[in-house]
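Practice problem 4.
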C-alpha cells in the first residue's frame, strides 16, 4: 500500500509523540536516537539555514545564489528526513520476536487492569509504541500504588 509523502510526515509526527524515549529502549530500538535527532533538527536547522544562507549571500554575492539556496534547502531537509523515516517505520509490521513481545506486554497490561486500546492481530510499530507508552505510564503507577498504599 503506497502512502503519500504528506501522510508519512503526519505518521512520523504522531509516532514521534507516541514513542516513549526511555533510556531502557535506546539499545534495542533506533527510534529513540532518531526521535532525539529529529527534535533537535526541527528546532535548530531552520535558523541555521537562514544564517548560513545570509552569510554565504553576503560573502559570495549574487553569483553563488544557486549554491546558497542548495545549502539552505539541505539544512531544511534534515528534519524532514527524520520525519519520513519515522513515518515509514511506524507503518512496518513487527517481526515475529517483537510481535510476541507486543503480545506479552499487552497481556501484562490487561492483567493489571490498565486501560489500553484493542489488540491487533498484525501489529505495526505504531501499535508497539502505544503499548510501550502505556506500559511505562500505567505499569509504573500500578507498581508505585501497590508499594505505597
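Answer key:
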Amino acid at each position: 500500500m503506497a502512502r503519500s509523502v504528506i501522510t508519512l510526515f503526519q505518521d512520523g509526527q504522531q509516532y514521534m509523540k507516541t514513542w516513549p524515549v526511555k533510556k531502557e529502549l535506546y539499545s534495542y530500538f533506533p527510534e529513540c536516537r532518531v526521535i532525539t535527532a529529529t527534535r533537535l533538527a526541527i528546532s535548530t536547522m531552520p535558523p541555521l539555514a537562514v544564517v548560513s544562507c545570509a552569510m554565504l549571500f553576503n560573502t559570495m554575492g549574487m553569483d553563488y545564489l544557486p549554491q546558497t539556496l542548495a545549502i539552505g534547502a539541505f539544512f531544511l531537509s534534515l528534519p524532514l528526513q527524520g520525519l519520513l523515516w519515522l513515518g515509514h517505520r511506524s507503518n512496518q509490521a513487527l517481526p515475529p520476536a517483537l510481535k510476541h513481545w507486543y503480545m506479552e506486554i499487552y497481556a501484562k497490561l490487561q492483567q493489571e487492569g490498565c486501560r489500553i486500546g484493542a489488540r491487533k492481530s498484525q501489529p505495526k510499530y505504531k501499535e508497539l509504541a502505544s503499548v510501550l507508552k502505556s506500559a511505562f505510564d500505567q505499569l509504573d503507577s500500578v507498581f508505585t500504588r501497590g508499594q505505597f498504599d
